[in-house]
Amino acid sequence: MSVVQVDISGWKSIPCECGKKARQAAIKYKGYEVRGWKCSCGNDYIHPEDSLKVSKLEKSKGVEVKVGLLGDSVIIRIPKELSEIYGIRKGSTLKLVPEGLSRIEIRKK
Ligand SMILES: [Zn+2]
User: Fold this and answer.
1) Confidence category of residue 3, pLDDT binned at 50, 70, 90
2) What spacing in Å lies between the alpha carbon of 36 and ligand 1's midpoint?
3) Cα 44 to ligand 1 centroid, rounded to whole Å
4) CA distance 23 to 12
5) Residue 55 has pLDDT above 80, yes or no
6) What is the DSSP letter of 18?
C-alpha cells in the first residue's frame, strides 16, 4: 500500500453534497479570504490548507517585530510562522500600501 498526497488546489470543481458541483472560488471565512469552492445551493467548501492557516492566524494576535537598518532603508523581518502561512520566500515581491499615517498594509503579489 502506498500513500499518495493529492494536491486539490487546482481542482476547478468538487462534488457538493446536494448532488451538483461546487465551483472553485474565493470564500470569506472568519474574516479572511480563502481558497475554496462554492455551490449554487449555497454550500461553501474551504480549502483544508487555508482552513489550517486561518486557525494558526487566529491564535496569533499580531506579532511585534524590531525595525533594523540596511543601508539607507529601514527593514523589518517577517517571522517564520507568518512567512510560511503566506508563502513568502526570499525573492518574493511584496507591495506596501499606505492605509493611514500609522498603518501600512503588506500585500503579496
Ligand atoms: Zn450544492
Assistant:
1) confident
2) 13
3) 8
4) 6
5) yes
6) T
For residue 41, report the distance from its CA to the centre of ligand 1, in Å: 4
> Residue 44's beta-bridge partner residues?
38
Instruction: Compute, in angstroms, the gap from residue 64 CA to the centroid of ligand 1.
Output: 42
Ligand 1 centroid distance, CA of 43 (Å): 5
**pTM greater than 0.85:** no
CA 37–ligand 1 middle distance (angstroms): 10
* Residue corresponding to grid cell 467548501: 45
Average pLDDT across the chain, whole number: 92
Rounded distance, CA 69 to CA 93, Å? 19
Of the candidates 42, 39, 41, 46, which has an alpha carbon nearest to the alpha carbon of residue 15? 39
pLDDT digits (tens, 9 = 90+) for 8-28: 888 999 999 999 999 999 999
